Amino acid sequence: MKTIRNIFIPFKQNELHLASIRFSDRIEDIEILLPEPVKWEEIASEEKRARFLRKIGNKVRPNGPKEFDGQFHLLIPGAIDPHVHFDTPGFEFREDFDHASLAALWGGVTTIIDMPCTSVPPVTSLTNMQIKLQALQNRAFCDYAFWGGVSGTDFSDPQSLRQNMEDLVHAGVVGFKAYLISGMEEFTDLQPEQMAQTARWTKELGVPLAVHAEDKELVTQRRRQFQKQGRNDWQAYCEARDILAEKAAVNFMHSIVKGTQSAVHIVHLSSSKGLNIVRKAQRNGLPMTAETCPHYLFFTQKDFERENIRNYLKTAPPVKFAEDREALWQGLADGSLAFVTTDHAGCDPQKEKTSTNFWQVYGGIPGVEHRVPFILSEGFLKGRLTLEQSINVLATNAAKFYRLSQKGALQRGKDADFALIDLWHPWTVKAKQMHSKGKYTPFEGVQWSARVLQTFLRGTLVTDAQTKFQTSVPLGKFIGRG
Ligand SMILES: [Zn+2]
Predict the structure, then answer these.
(1) The pTM of the whole model exceeds 0.90
(2) Is residue 482 in a domain?
(3) How far is the CA of 268 from the centre of ligand 1 (A)?
(4) Ligand 1 center to residue 391 CA distance, Å?
């Protein structure tokens, strides 16, 4: 049995408890040490925290290798990033599980859900899923779940497609990912009728359908036109993939949810107009949900003018405008956005981020390491979200939505997955300190006040920023939808 002492754990809204936790690979017991919760304002600065600690006095000194000293930092449940592309097996010249799952731990993330489309073969059948599981043997440092995928080419044999989906659900995938527009030859997008059929099947199978929602007609039409005019600049890219393209696609998915009652989840939502459609669906009791990512919550298209980060900021869809950014924060605060994911997708920046032709720049940000400090710094510490809301969008909501029953909360019986967070000392993001394979980020030079100090995976300390310790044992295991 192990113990971590001298920690603050989140309670309601912006209240915390001074606590200590006993754990094995699971949480055995949480001891609350003061009768009243602590208000964040009481410890919000280094001086206030010191004053508070003097007041309570009796610090218990942990002793022995099984006792950890939290040094009166914040302990949160291990975060879950439910949308990443870790690229093993297949696209490992860009990213791989060894690097990315270790980066996850450094970022306080103990569970990820990997997308089906960026591994070869894609996770579209049980056989393919087994190949991926095999490839991940001894290569995963954090726990992982899988998305299944439905690609346009699968519709050449609808009967096997339906059977494959059923097999994958039994094998524990959390849901299915499909595209209304895809840039990948290996994983093609769905025609409208194929999307409707897929939604009927995911409804039968009782799992969510996650959709990349940008309108194919609008985007390709405009892209062709721009390219004909020799326009290869970032403005052309952003105009081709504008708010209208997202709005049209989210609207289309809204009509599918209405027609099928199938649970549809919009991935990486980027616009206020898109969010409003999701809100409308939710008001009408339709099972439509959405997520957004740190880049949509921080950058706007004005940032493409900054040459040093321009290519690093490219994603599909691209970031939008200030009003969209504010609306997305509002969506997190009012619960119409379910959670924040990173859409982690890395590459070798020397090879794929240097083109002056913006169409040819690889789109994707390796962000799994930055999401927890980002949300706690830009969300909680800047007053856009409460501490409780921040934990919900980082961990708890995804655990519930994808039925990862052992994850996402500091509760007796759950896995002992923790991240210890320093909220009192600002630090500066530097790409060269990242642990992902490709080391680049549009957040270069940004200052955050929250920093991940230690991460525990099922009771084992796996990273420690103060001692620079990182585990050499890939303890990560596959977890299925419960
Ligand atoms: Zn993605």
Answers:
(1) yes
(2) no
(3) 8
(4) 22
